[in-house]
Each structure stands twice: as structure tokens, then as C-alpha cells.
Amino acid sequence: MEASELWVGFVGAGRMAGGLVRGLLQAGKVPASNILASAPSDKNLDAWRELGCRTTHCNLEVVHRSTLVFLATKPHILPGVLEEIRPAVGSHHIVVSLVAGVTIQTLQRLLPPWTKVLRIMPNLPCVVQAGAMVFSRGSNAGDEEAALLKSLLSSCGLCEEVPESYIDIHTGLSGSGVAYVYLFAEALAEGAVKMGMPGALASRIAAQTLLGAAKMLLETGEHPAKLRGDVCTPGGTTIYALHQLEKGALRATVMDAVEAATNRACDMAKD
């Protein structure tokens, strides 16, 4: 399907949905005039209008006027939204949920039995088109729907299809993982401030250090341990610093954090 022929709707117009739309528009995937977003108030819709998208306060209008429908509401609101739009969902619709903790099984139960359902879990850097996303498909979504979604969302960052059981792990690794990285960046900068560097400069250097390290990981394909070893020289500054991090159990603590966030995501799906 050509981008100009695709009509995309968003039920919910929060920050994550807005980030995805910016990626679609910047990559020329879909014209702004083909995007329609709904929200209860104008609070979030003004930014969409500035991008050239159409807006409404009616969720049913989004479904009626779109082929690809993204569900981007808060989890506790979604059941009521699905009950509202269910009569309007046809066999031609593709429904993609961004809602945390809501399984494909639940979506399929609350929507008509023929609905093509996919579930995606993005992370915050999608708003700057540098996200990491995974998605899974329901029983009625085929290769065509999966390929379409991946083609569209690759404009917002890394996008991979995975078994649904990986989505909660992705939440612990990448969805919540962004916060772990921010905490590490903050600690890096504060260490430099302690040693006499101005805070603003230290924060910029810390951010660029993380960006450069991530870029090397992606572009070289090397294992992190290999790249870490490349930085160390016998008796040098880096091995002394790494010894302190190991004494602080950084590695085990981060692994515990991923486990805790993953388990919490699983618990949320059961609530």
C-alpha cells in the first residue's frame, strides 16, 4: 500500500503517539493530511494540528476514517474505548496497541473476532526517532500487516518482531532501561562535577559518551565485553575505574533492575 493511500488513526494523542507520528512524517511515510488523532480535550491535540494532522474528540470518527488504527490510551481507559469502537471495527482494519500491560489475547477478546491485531511496545526515544520497539501479531494479522507496521515504525528507530512473551522483557530492558541510562548519565556527570568540571559541560560530555558507545555497539556488532576490553590498558585509568564499579556490584544491580521491571510488567498484565 502506498503511503498516500494509507489512512492512519490514533485513539489517544499522548507523547509516545506523538513521537511515532513525527517519525512517520519526517520519513515521508504518511502525509499529515492522512493522519487523524482523537483525545478527550485539546490539551494534546494542539501539537498534532501544528504538524498538519487532523484531530477530533470522537474515537469512532478515527475508526471510521482510518485503515490503520493505533490504540494509545492509558491502560485503565482502554476497555471502555474498545467497547465504544468495537461496532465500527471491520475486517479491513488493522488495530495496533501501544497500551502497556494489555495482551493480544485481551485485545482479541474485546474486539470483533476477525480483527487484525498487533501489539507494539516502544520506548521514550521514539520521540526523537531513536527508539527501540518490538511488536507481536495476533492470530488474524499476517505477513502483510507485520511488514507494513515494521516499514512504518522503522522511521522511529529499531523495530523488531518478537514473540509476545518478549514484550515484558523488552519493557524491563528498554522501556524502563532508558531511565537506567539517564541515571548512569547523571552519575557520570556528577562525578566530573565533583572533580571540578562545570555541570552543563559534564552533562553534554556524558550524553555524547553514551551516544558514541551505543553507536559503536550497533555499528561494529562487537560484544560489549570486547569493546570494554579495548578501552582498558594494563595499569591504566579505566581498569581502576571498572574495579570500583565491580565492587559496587553495578553489573548485578542492573540485571536485578531488568528482572524487577520485567516482573512488574508481567504483574500489570494480570491485573
Automatic annotation (TrEMBL):
Amino-acid positions noted as binding NADP(+) in the UniProt annotation, renumbered to this chain: 72-75
A GO MF label: pyrroline-5-carboxylate reductase activity
UniProt subcellular location: Cytoplasm
Residue ranges of every copy of the Pyrroline-5-carboxylate reductase catalytic N-terminal domain listed in the record: 8-101
Annotated EC: 1.5.1.2
The entry's keywords: Amino-acid biosynthesis, Cytoplasm, NADP, Oxidoreductase, Proline biosynthesis
Catalytic activities: L-proline + NAD(+) = (S)-1-pyrroline-5-carboxylate + NADH + 2 H(+); L-proline + NADP(+) = (S)-1-pyrroline-5-carboxylate + NADPH + 2 H(+)
Chief location of this protein within or outside the cell: cytoplasm
GO biological process, one term: L-proline biosynthetic process
Domain Pyrroline-5-carboxylate reductase dimerisation, first and last residues per copy: 164-266
Signal peptide boundaries: none
Coiled coil stretches, renumbered: none
Binding site for NADPH: 59
This protein's pathway: Amino-acid biosynthesis; L-proline biosynthesis; L-proline from L-glutamate 5-semialdehyde: step 1/1
UniProt-listed PANTHER family: PYRROLINE-5-CARBOXYLATE REDUCTASE, PYRROLINE-5-CARBOXYLATE REDUCTASE 3
Subunit and interaction comment: Homodecamer; composed of 5 homodimers.
Protein family membership: Belongs to the pyrroline-5-carboxylate reductase family.
Role noted for this protein: Oxidoreductase that catalyzes the last step in proline biosynthesis, which corresponds to the reduction of pyrroline-5-carboxylate (P5C) to L-proline using NAD(P)H. Proline is synthesized from either glutamate or ornithine; both are converted to P5C, and then to proline via pyrroline-5-carboxylate reductases (PYCRs). PYCR3 is exclusively linked to the biosynthesis of proline from ornithine.
Protein name (record): Pyrroline-5-carboxylate reductase
Organism: Cyanistes caeruleus (Eurasian blue tit)
